[in-house]
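Pasting as-is:
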Amino acid sequence: MSTIIWIIIAIIVVAIIVAAVMAARRRRHQALTQRATEMRTEAAVRDQDVAEERRRAAEADAKAQLARAEAERAEQHAQAARQSSAYEEARQEDTLREADRIDPHVDDTRDPATGTTGTTGTTGTTGGTTGETTRDTTGEAGATHRRDI
């Protein structure tokens, strides 16, 4: 009879152990399910944050594209201004050359290779009011100096 009691006790112990293992597995599955649910909730919140970041990035891209277009327009405007300035400088130089050409007091016998004049001591002035220009060729090696008075 003692063997039967030991078998019954062994069966009961095994049943208790199996029940404990099954309960532990059930708790573990519940904990994992709960953790997965929490992770999905966090991901959904982050998904909203990611969508907001994506919207901000698209907005920043649009602003950058607008700034690039504006910078390109400004560069085109600056290029046009540089061209206009160069044109006006060339016109101004042409006007001065024409004035030198028709002015009998300006020595125009300069050697093109050296830029020096064939004679020395020639001085001429043009104008007669505020803003007049003095042309002086008595400087070093016959160089022409322009200055506003």
